[in-house]
Protein: ABC transporter substrate-binding protein YesO
Organism: Paenibacillus konkukensis
Amino acid sequence: MFKLHRSAAALSLSLIVPASLLAACSAGESSEPKVDPGGTSGKIELRIAWWGSQDRHDRTLKVIDMYEQQHPNIKISPEFIAWDGYWDKLATQAAGKSLPDIIQQDYKYITEYVGRNLLVDLDPYVKSNTIDLSDADPLHTDGGKINNKLYAVNLGTNSLALAYDPAMFAEAGVPELKPGYTWDDLANTARQLKAKLGKDVYGMPNFNGMDPFKHLLREKGLWIYNEKGDGLGYPDDQVLVDYFKYFDTLLKDGIVPTPQVTQDIKGLEDELIVHKKSPLLFFNSNQVVALQKAANRPLKLTVLPSLEGGKAGHFLKPSQFFSITTHSKHPEEAAKFINYFTNDLQANEVLGAERGVPISSKVREHLGKSMGEGAKEMFDYIDLVQKYSREIDPPDPEGATKIEALFKRIQEAVNYGQLTPEQAAKQFREEGTKELKK
């Protein structure tokens, strides 16, 4: 149902955190590990921050405890928070020059953090083998490089995915979606599922957000931003009109849930698929471990819809990274912990590839012998999705965070019937262009 556009756009991208909040120390600011002068235990204290599900928190805390037992001179203080508040918290800490020693980092934020001298160049630690990347393919590590310097260690590879419940498909007597299926195939399948599974179950979620739209644009050989990052990269608003219409029709027909139904979903534990209220879920593939734990039953992964005659929309993405901040007084000890997190076999048994497919081939081989169904499904999916992927686009430009917030606001207005798809596409271009030109 979507028409193919042949024009293409490259991009340049980064993050959006207010510049006033990202004042930083010099990137060269480092020292030998020192005992915390304010402490009484005589231990070196490291602070580490991450976002994620409860499952991720539990796994990470256990690994921290294991590391502390092996290194009695180290005390690690965890700071974890939901994604929505994570970056605001880091921005506040950056303004006060009090960032944690280690922060979980995202692909779209690296450029800006490096530009503000907030991240340590990790190459010296790699060269000294403090962080051992000899077992990691450059395809897994290059995403953490800016200007050929490594600022972030990939914690796992992932890709956008559709999770589905094979038992619910079987109950409905509806064939499972096979890779290469189209957007129309997805809509038709969702209608069949809804018809067979009853009024309290939806055919699929209403995932008319920005990431699936980016996927569609890539299939059209387009991108959401232009090359300079000061405007939108797709020339015709009809592509966004058609995108919103696609989901709006399913919403009006009762195939996808209303926003009133989904407003209380705050995490994976609340998703409709967990409670058998929908057989499908759009998300990132590395979340399948936590999703299966929450659902307590087998779930599978498949690729997003293909555009007939279009390009590959998928790409392999570092799910998240660990970076050492220039505010750290103990970068050497921080590097040692990152190495442990990356390469230790027992630690990775606990982590269970929840953050994505590990970059170490030795870790992947080790986990392959005993990993659970969720991790195995994720490993298999990464092998599958490579066939439907092409090169990743550069990180988003400055202003991208505000563009994402704008898209979400307009998306919600369409879902609530406050804007038509035509009005929404026009408003997104007008406000988005204005914001990107700042």
In short: The chain has a mean pLDDT of 89. Residues 54-70 form the longest helix (17 residues).
